[in-house]
Amino acid sequence: MRRRVIPRVPVVSPRARARRLRVAVCLLVTLVPTVVLSCADGGPLATPAPNLAPLGFAPAYNYFGASASSADINRIRLTARDAADGRLLTADTVDVDADASEWRLDLDVPVEPGRVIQVVVTIELINVVGGVETVQWSGQTAPISASAGQPQAPAPVELYQGPPGNLAVVSLTLSEQHVSLAERDSADVTVAVVSESGTPEVFWSTTDSSVVGLEGHAGGARLRALRPGTARIMAVAGPRADTLELMVLQRISGVRVRPDSVELSSLGAEASFTADVLDGQGAPMAGEDVVWTSGDTAVAVHLGGGRFRAVVAGRAVVSA
Predict the structure, then answer these.
(1) Cα angle value 35/36/38 (rounded, 5°)
(2) Is this prediction's pTM over 0.85?
(3) Which residues in the chain show pLDDT less than 50?
(4) Which of 41, 192, 236, 264 holds its CA 20 to 30 A away from the CA of 116?
(5) Is the dihedral of CA 122, 123, 125, 128 positive or negative?
(6) For residues 202 and 235, is the Cβ–Cβ distance under 8 A?
(7) Rounded (5°) CA angle 175-71-234
């Protein structure tokens, strides 16, 4: 007779994250393959029958830095491997309703009688369009002991955006930590990713898309300054992430000096000017310093703060 591990996997849809972010998953070792032990959300498992070994974990989405481009989930794949040698024990793929708030799946994993094995389960939440699969979220449990009559408390597992290959990322570093740009300017940042296997997929996001536009590309992203303000840029691949702070400054389009002209009637007389620094919309910008100059210091000298004094008869152009 063969014993089986039957995981019941309630996985919460990303659409329902506001209602339920943590769900329970029960792995069962049983002599009767059709018996499935239900478990309360996040709570302790019920007392098992002598031939059952409930092994649980509670998956939760890790939304830090997640891109808003995550698509609907309409397929789920579960893969169970022997933690000792990576041997595939079993796998199952099930199409699900994208509008559902929760999905429950069963998976039979063969276990030899009298053995205690360590099982690692990988969960993939997949979007399928036109027969093409794209993994939206994935996660992997720590090794779980499977033996009859040995209940364990649920262990946590996080689901990260992207395919299972992203789970092997060990470090992610951005080339910059602070970037300042003027409106309508752009800059490129690069990302260095170290992974134990494969080529990971990096996801980019920002805390304020009205301040900065993001265009991810191979090896980095282009930042486009949209309007004055600050925003945080996040790059994420699996469990690793890095951030940078972006400041977008108002772009100066010109300086307006008032009055347009002044005529002084005597030597030593003084005139005062004011200057407005203008933004891209022609509106005055507050708090901007200006530097005043005289086009001919033999005719007029600057006294400070936009005040000029006539020295000799003549004409001088005042600039700010």
Answers:
(1) 145
(2) no
(3) 1-10, 16-55, 57
(4) 41
(5) positive
(6) yes
(7) 20
Amino acid found at 252: I
- Tally of CB atoms within 10 A around 116: 12
**Lookup result for tokens 């703060």:** 305
Identify any residues that bridge with 184 across adjacent strands, giving them in sequence order: none
Nearest residue to 290 via CA among 308, 270, 305: 305
DSSP symbols for the chain:
--EEEEEEEEEE-GGGTTT-SB--EEEEEESSTT------TTSPPPPPPTT---EEEEEEE--TT--TTPPPP-EEEEEEEETTT--EEEEEEEE--TT-SEEEEE--EEE-TT--EEEEEEEEEEEEETTEEEEEEEEEPPPEEE-TT---PPEEEEEEES-GGGGGEEEEEES-SEEEEETT-EEEEEEEEEESSS-PPPEEEES-TTTEEEEEETTEEEEEE-SSEEEEEEEEETTEEEEEEEEEEPPP-EEEEESS----SSTT-EEE-EEEEE-TTSPBPTT-----EES-TTTEEEEETTEEEE-SSS---EE-
Given its phi and psi angles, is residue 199 left (phi above 0), alpha (psi -120 to 50 degrees) or beta?
A: beta
Nearest to 224, CA basis, from 256, 255, 182: 182
Evaluate whether 85 touches 14 at the Cβ level (below 8 Å).
Answer: no
pLDDT tens per residue across span 127-176 = 999 989 989 888 888 888 776 555 555 556 788 888 999 999 999 999 99
